[in-house]
Amino acid sequence: MLGLGCPKQTLAKIATPLQCSLLLNELMEVAKEHFRNEEAYLAKVKYPDLAEHAIYHNEMLLKAFQVKQICEGFEEAHDVNACFDELVKFLIDDVLMGDLKFKSYLEYEGYINRYH
Fold this sequence. Notes:
The protein is mainly α. The chain has one domain: Four Helix Bundle (Hemerythrin (Met), subunit A), CATH 1.20.120. It contains four helices and no strands. α1 packs across α4, α2 packs antiparallel against α3 and α3 runs antiparallel to α4. The chain is elongated.
């Protein structure tokens, strides 16, 4: 699998639009499982904004599906770079926009240690 540190020029040489689409399929399946596990954990710890967070997850999956549809229409290598950029945005958005919201709750309730 390609790492996030992979230069985009290299990605464009080795990833066809079909490969990009397959990568997005794999990402969506992994994301669905991650979101299910995360929501189950948040339910267990009684996270008060779980319903809102689950809606956020559904919106993220919808965005990923839309990116996948766009990428399936790409035919040129530079388009694969645009697809890769959207893929990275998806991954960063989940961590920065979604998961940080419940981190302080988990720290406050003693489920995680701020320093570990």
